[in-house]
Each structure stands twice: as structure tokens, then as C-alpha cells.
Design goal:
183 residues
Length: 183
């Protein structure tokens, strides 16, 4: 009888705890969004002298701050192999959205046939990314690893890192452009 009560108590406590984590994670995500949104709206651009590059710097900082903090939150709330892989996957998707944002900003600042240069660069990067995915999936095979689930984490982390790095590269290109946009 005592064993049954103990078992039921453990199940009930773990159910409540995991249920609270989901609610708490959503609340933490909402809070993080509000904090970053507040920084976006209320930090005066005068602190940055109102220059285009400074505005870009602030925008990039807040964009990446949100993703990195969200990634950390997700890892804190679910540190299982599946939870880590999902957090990595989510971070990659968020960075992919940023990649498109900063790519479009960059291409819109290029003139004439120079736009083709960045388009070709991006096509080459996509080929690189896709080949890295194939290679990462290949080395997950038991022939090259012990076949453990940790390799899922390694692969998803690498996928996110590749996309994050490309976003940073695109931002650095934008940061190097000092000429004002022609109206």
C-alpha cells in the first residue's frame, strides 16, 4: 500500500512539475519578448547619434539578443536530448529568419550588377550549408560514431551555428557600407 501511494505521489508531483514548466516557459518567453520589445521602443537613438550604422547595430544586437536568450531559456526548461535538439532547431529557424532579413537589407543597398555578386555568394553559401548538413548526417552513422543520441545534439548545434555565422557575416558586410541610401 505504501509503495502504491509513493508511486502515485511521484507521478502526480512529476506531472504537476512538468505542467508548470510548460506554463512557466511560455511566461518566460512572453517576458523575454516584452523586455526586448521595450528596449527596441524605449532606448533612444540619440545614444547612437542617430546614424544609420548605429541604428543597424542596435537592431542587430536586439535581434540576436532575443534569439540567444530564447535559446538559453528553452535549454534551461528542457535539457533532455530531444529538448536540446528542439531548442537548436528553433534557434536555427530564428536565425534563418534573420538571415533573410539582413540579406534583403544588404541586397537593397547594392547597386546594379553588384547585386548579382551577393546573390551568387548567397547561392554558394546555400550549397555549402546543404553539403555540411549532408556531411553532419553522414558522420552520425554508427560507422563513424558510437551511434548515441548525443550526435543528434552535435548535428543540430552545427546546423544552428552555420546559419548564425552567416547572419553575422551579412551584418558585418552591412556594417562596412557607410554610404547613405539614395532616395
Amino acid at each position: 500500500m505504501k509503495k502504491n501511494i509513493l508511486l502515485i505521489s511521484c507521478i502526480l508531483i512529476s506531472t504537476i512539475a512538468f505542467g508548470q514548466n510548460r506554463i512557466t516557459l511560455k511566461a518566460a518567453k512572453d517576458n523575454l519578448f516584452k523586455q526586448v520589445d521595450s528596449l527596441r521602443k524605449h532606448k533612444p537613438l540619440d545614444d547612437y547619434n542617430g546614424q544609420w550604422v548605429a541604428k543597424l547595430e542596435k537592431e542587430f544586437y536586439l535581434d540576436t539578443l532575443y534569439i540567444e536568450r530564447l535559446w538559453a531559456l528553452e535549454l534551461d526548461y528542457n535539457s533532455s536530448t530531444q529538448g536540446i535538439a528542439q531548442a537548436n532547431y528553433n534557434a536555427e529557424n530564428h536565425y534563418d529568419t534573420l538571415l533573410n532579413k539582413y540579406y534583403n537589407k544588404l541586397i537593397n543597398r547594392m547597386v546594379g550588377k553588384d547585386k548579382e555578386v551577393i546573390k551568387e555568394s548567397q547561392r554558394n553559401w546555400i550549397k555549402f550549408r546543404n553539403s555540411e548538413r549532408i556531411f553532419n548526417n553522414t558522420i552520425q552513422d554508427e560507422q563513424y560514431s558510437d551511434g548515441g543520441t548525443i550526435h543528434t545534439i552535435f548535428a543540430t548545434q552545427k546546423f544552428a551555428d552555420i546559419t548564425r555565422q552567416r547572419v553575422i557575416e551579412l551584418y558585418y558586410y552591412l556594417d562596412r557600407i557607410w554610404r547613405p541610401m539614395k532616395k
